[in-house]
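Backbone-to-sequence.
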């Protein structure tokens, strides 16, 4: 029995064992006792996780894959959750315990997986997975890069992001039309921001919505004082600002005296 890849779920099953093992080995396994694999399919990555000294859980939306995993990985059967990762409350599995995330992620939801991880960063010290190559590159890119954007800044505010390696289409069934990229996120030792986090998210998102404009123009909706807008930081465009500069910019906006 094998599982048919379903287009509407964005499934591309990894067939290369050495790449699966390499992804499994990318986690340090320190600081947590549980790992959650998203979208395990037929378990090519799962079997390498099960060899490690960690409790593996898998979450899978495809009933056919769930049946396959329960039939073929008997020691995992009670930790196979037939749920939608994006909608499921993971504290039902992990309570308040820390856990890592890993997976060969469906391209169509990969950025949403990152945003949910950011929301749960208190519990997720490490994250490793395969994305569409350009998305992995964007998450890991630094200021000055054309692909640096909202996803880069918000992720790197809380995690150190490393692009690990590129994966060709030929190792998947069915093969996607593009290359994939594997990255690892390790949560920073100090991952609390010295500013209001909601304001920080808003500043970053608003700035990049008009990325060609200077911050003086793109942040008009914040009704900043003339005094603050005279600061040289407002002459820059968003992709010129490092994560630390965005934090500094948010501090300026927080302390702006509009009187």
């Amino acid at each position: 029995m094998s599982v048919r890849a379903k287009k509407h779920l964005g499934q591309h099953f990894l067939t290369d064992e050495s790449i699966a093992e390499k992804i499994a080995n990318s986690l340090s396994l320190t600081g947590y006792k549980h790992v959650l694999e998203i979208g395990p399919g037929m378990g090519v990555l799962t079997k390498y996780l099960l060899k490690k000294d960690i409790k593996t859980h898998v979450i899978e939306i495809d009933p056919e894959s769930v049946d396959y995993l329960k039939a073929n990985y008997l020691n995992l059967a009670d930790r196979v959750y037939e749920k939608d990762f994006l909608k499921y409350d993971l504290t039902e599995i992990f309570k308040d315990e820390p856990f890592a995330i890993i997976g060969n992620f469906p391209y169509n939801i990969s950025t949403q997986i990152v945003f949910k991880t950011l929301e749960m960063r208190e519990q997720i010290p490490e994250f490793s997975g395969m994305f569409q190559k350009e998305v992995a590159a964007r998450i890991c890119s630094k200021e000055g890069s054309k692909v640096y954007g909202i996803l880069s800044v918000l992720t790197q505010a809380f995690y150190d992001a490393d692009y690990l390696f590129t994966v060709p289409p030929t190792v998947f069934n069915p093969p996607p039309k593009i290359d994939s990229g594997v990255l690892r996120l390790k949560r920073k030792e100090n991952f609390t921001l010295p500013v209001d986090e909601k304001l920080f998210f808003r500043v970053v998102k608003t700035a990049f919505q008009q990325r060609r404009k200077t911050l003086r123009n793109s942040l008009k909706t914040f009704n900043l004082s003339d005094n603050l807008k005279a600061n040289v930081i407002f002459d820059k465009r968003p992709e010129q600002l490092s994560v630390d500069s965005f934090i500094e910019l948010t501090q300026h906006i927080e302390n702006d005296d509009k009187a």
